[in-house]
Design brief:
By secondary structure, this protein is of the alpha/beta class. Helices cover 38% and strands 14% of the residues. The protein has a single domain (3-150), classed as Rossmann fold (3-Layer(aba) Sandwich). The chain has helices at 3-17, 34-48, 64-74, 93-100, 116-123, 137-150, and strands at 21-26, 53-57, 83-87, 106-111, 128-130. It has a 5-stranded parallel beta sheet, sandwiched between helices. Helix 3 (64-74) links the parallel strand 2 (53-57) and strand 3. Residues 149-185 are annotated as: Disordered.
């Protein structure tokens, strides 16, 4: 089976096996690469996997994902038909995501550090939480708060079969600098 056929088979199975797979890209700190990561993940699902995909800009502080979309449109770039970009920075975001599950194969949520409440609400609907972070002390300091906000969230209820979920170990302290490193971490 060719890789292209395998990808299309996976996409077809994914679309019929469960409601939208929801990926939340979030961190309770700005500037960690959330929006860039969310865009590439959404494009992968829309273009490569050929799934109807919603990129949801849920950052209350910055609407970068949606702004990039508007700039691309104004410049004449063609947006793939499978990709819908919208913004929704409100506290009832979990209800919005839940309502959109039946319409899309994938929902990618870009949620920033501007609101712990919006982050928490988005995570309640997530099948996967991605936390972009650079190996710096300032970013690692926000990891504990990010995982604390996500930790009490139960997995989303689905009406049909869902992909396997995994848990992660939340760090209790920031990891130490590697031995021999001369700069501060």
């Amino acid at each position: 089976m060719s890789e292209n056929t395998r990808t299309k088979t996976l996409a077809a199975a994914t679309a019929s096996a469960w409601d939208a797979f929801v990926i939340v890209v979030g961190m309770l700190k700005g500037g960690t690469g959330k929006t860039t990561s969310a865009w590439f993940i959404a494009l992968y699902h829309a273009v490569v996997l050929d799934l109807p995909t919603l990129l949801l800009n849920a950052d209350a502080t910055s609407q970068s994902a949606y702004d990039w979309f508007k700039v691309a449109q104004a410049a004449g770039f063609e947006i793939h038909a499978n990709l819908v970009i919208t913004r929704y920075p409100f506290d009832d975001i979990a209800e919005y995501i839940s309502a959109k599950r039946a319409e899309f194969g994938a929902i990618v949520v870009d949620v920033g550090g501007g609101s712990a409440r919006i982050f928490h609400e988005a995570v309640t609907e997530a099948n996967l939480l991605l936390v972009p972070v650079a190996p710096t002390k300032i970013e690692r300091r926000k990891l504990v708060a990010t995982f604390d906000e996500a930790e009490p969230v139960p997995p989303p209820a689905t009406s049909t079969a869902s992909p396997p979920t995994s848990s992660w170990s939340r760090p209790t302290t920031a990891p130490a600098c590697p031995a021999g490193r001369r700069t501060s971490c």
